[in-house]
Design goal:
The protein is an alpha/beta fold. The chain is built from nine helices and 16 strands.
Length: 296
């Protein structure tokens, strides 16, 4: 069942469906002009920011999605998170949801001009500091990477207007895990090198808005983009950079080489995107300043 917050009317505006309306999705509207009208589809009724009209429904419910798509949306943006970090959780959140969404798109009378599916660079399995981009083989051995890749395939097969964005590690307000660890004195060994890639949450939202604007301008888009900032960095370097600015000492802990690749954002840059936070230095400096600011 879908509970409409208000009547859905086109009124000359571009209608955007945010399928899943968490932190990243709610950051998108400020990056776009007022002619974009946003609706956020979530499983539970909740207040949404920036004038997003809340809709309540299940993204894996075919009848619900048919009702939603009957309203005719110009753009669909899917930003999903699993209920738990298990194989079952990923299967439900990504594989099952993407299959249901693909079916709804195929059955919709009014087809979206653009479908943006948010994925992750964890679809890659490369290691040892290897560089990866959109043309690199995406064959992760992890259950999460495999589920994400299957979801990508479902969405890309659903429509020739589908676009997959593979974000690297997202950080920003409310996503301060590394900052918290450094404040707790948790370091890492310099060798073997542990490469990491990241993107600020504000850039995540701005990247999605960027592709929406390009689509409106009828600029040809690739089916897949890697969205990561301009400087892959070793965990040793970024942790010690943070420690120096926070005036804390680090104790090295055992190495974890899961994220041992370097991601290239060249095709994203070629599309004309300008980063708000080009490297970890700008992004974490903003977080540190916020940390130091007196709270009311």
């Amino acid at each position: 069942m879908v509970y409409w917050g208000t009547d859905i009317k086109r009124a000359g505006k571009l209608k955007i469906l945010l399928a899943g309306c968490g932190d990243i999705a709610q950051r998108i509207p400020p990056n776009l002009p007022s002619e974009y009208q946003f609706f956020g589809l979530t499983r539970r009724s909740k207040m949404l920011t920036y004038g997003i009209t809340p809709l309540v429904g299940d993204l894996r419910d075919n009848s619900c999605l048919d009702t939603v798509f009957a309203e005719g949306f110009d753009v669909v943006v899917a930003t999903l998170t699993p209920d738990d970090m298990s194989a079952k959780g990923y299967q439900k959140a990504y594989v099952e949801t993407s299959a249901a969404l693909a079916l709804a798109i195929s059955r919709a009378v009014y087809k979206p001009k653009l479908v943006i599916w948010v994925s992750s660079t964890s679809v890659y399995g490369q290691s040892m500091g290897a560089w990866v981009d959109e043309d690199s083989e995406a064959r992760s051995s992890s259950f999460s990477g495999q589920a994400l890749r299957q979801a990508e395939e479902n969405i890309l097969a659903a429509s020739d207007t589908s676009l997959v964005v593979r974000f690297s590690g997202i950080y920003g307000p409310g996503r301060s895990r590394m900052l918290d660890q450094v404040l707790a004195g948790v370091g890492c060994a310099k060798q073997p090198e542990q490469w990491s890639n990241r993107i600020h949450s504000e850039d995540c939202a701005a990247v999605i808005a960027h592709f929406m604007r390009l689509n409106e301008q009828e600029v040809p888009l690739l089916p897949i983009y890697v969205a990561t900032d301009c400087q892959p960095v070793t965990l040793y370097e970024v942790r010690h950079w943070l420690a120096a600015r926070l005036n804390v000492s680090l104790i090295a802990q055992a190495a974890n080489t899961r994220a041992a690749r370097r991601c290239s954002n060249q095709k994203l840059l070629d599309s004309g995107y300008k980063f708000k936070f080009p490297t970890y230095r700008e992004g974490y400096s903003a977080l540190i300043e916020d940390l130091k600011s007196p709270k009311p």
